Amino acid sequence: MGNAADLQWATEGPVPPSSPVVSVDVTATPVVSYALAHNAVPVVSRVTLTSGTATLRGATLRLSVADAEGAIGAGVERLVDLDAGQTTVLNDVGLTLDPAAMLQLEEPRPGSVRVELVADGRVLAEQRVPVQVLAAAQWLATPLPLALEMLAAHVQPNHPAVQALLAEAAELLEEGTGSGSMAGYADDAERVDEVAEALTWAVRRRGIRYSEPPASWGETGQQVRTPGEVLDGRVGTCLDTVVTLAAAFEQAGIRPLLWIVEGHAFLGYWREERSAETAATTDVSALVNLVDLGLVRLVETTLLTDRGDTRTDLHGPAYAWLSGDLSRVLGVTDVHRARRDGVLPLP
């Protein structure tokens, strides 16, 4: 799992005129979430301190993250020595979010990361970096590819509603094939397809009402529903149904792929025991080639809601997004690879 802040921007703040000249650069993720907190992903990946004419010994670097209501993570202090005219780089300073605090957020709000350098009771340098604080269940496609990695946290294979869905799918498998077994990749690709089809029919029988997704994944994002809200509450957007069915696939031993395109999402799965090279892929041409080779199959989950019908081809409608300009595809999340990289499902 990549560091939350590795791909983000840096900023430098003003230095009080009465202090020795010390510049501070902070590299932090611009969007923080409950998924980041649950997975203990650092908010700040790098702090760069450059001293001008002064040599400092035992200065204290203080870091904190907060929103308008108060702290959303425990503060961190580090002792640093700075030599005149030299630069000191601190990587992964240990500033993380408090999962309990992030879980309480019902609406998105502004926040900030604050960095102070203090010596002999004086603040030598101070910097505030604005961050966007998401609501607990919210997912926003910013920044990429980190946001795609964190989307895997919203796939909850151990949710009780998923367990119930698998039981229904096993009955359908028993009726259709003579065996209700879901053994993942212990069987051949055809059996993997049969298990996937049974799971899609089990979802279809729930009578889920389709809800329109937000206009832009990158601007407003979405409050992602849990499998219980989708399967028992019987309502969901394309993204809701994708992560719910992905959870069922994962629980059944099938490795799901979450495809995010402009204003839409659909599901894919590996027909063989494989995975992508990285948890998040933004250049999807190689994966599209694997779709063409029959190693990956797609599922248009909106057809499993009241917007669909009884057609059995769920692959073709999803593939339409891949048959033209791939710039419309924001990226793909390989859930199995994300798990290997340490991204845990939300509880």
Describe the structure.
This protein is α+β, with helices and mostly antiparallel strands and 347 residues long. It has 2 domains: 10-135, Immunoglobulin-like; 146-340, C8orf32 fold (Roll). The chain is built from 10 helices and 19 strands. The strands form 5 sheets. Strands 3, 5, 6, 7, 9 and 10 form a 6-stranded mixed beta sheet that branches. A 5-stranded antiparallel beta sheet has the order 17-19-15-16-18, sandwiched between helices. A 4-stranded antiparallel beta sheet has the order 1-2-4-8, with no helix packed on it. GO terms for molecular function: helicase activity. It comes from Modestobacter versicolor.
Which structural traits does this protein have?
347 residues; Immunoglobulin-like; five-stranded antiparallel beta sheet; 10 helices; six-stranded mixed beta sheet; C8orf32 fold; alpha+beta
Regarding quaternary structure, what we see is: single chain
Q: How many strand units? A: 19
H-E order? EEEHEEEEEHEEEHHHEEHEHEEEHEHEH
Strand content: 25-35%
Protein name: DNA helicase
GO molecular function: helicase activity
Keywords: ATP-binding, Helicase, Hydrolase, Nucleotide-binding
Record the SSE blueprint.
Elements: E1 10-12, E2 22-28, E3 31-32, H1 34-38, E4 44-51, E5 56-67, E6 70-71, E7 76-82, E8 87-91, H2 99-103, E9 109-119, E10 122-133, E11 138-139, H3 146-151, H4 160-177, H5 189-204, E12 209-210, E13 222-223, H6 227-231, E14 235-236, H7 238-251, E15 256-261, E16 264-270, E17 280-281, H8 285-292, E18 296-299, H9 315-319, E19 329-334, H10 335-340
Parallel strand pairs: 3-10, 12-14
Antiparallel strand pairs: 1-2, 2-4, 4-8, 5-6, 5-7, 5-9, 9-10, 11-13, 15-16, 15-19, 16-18, 17-19
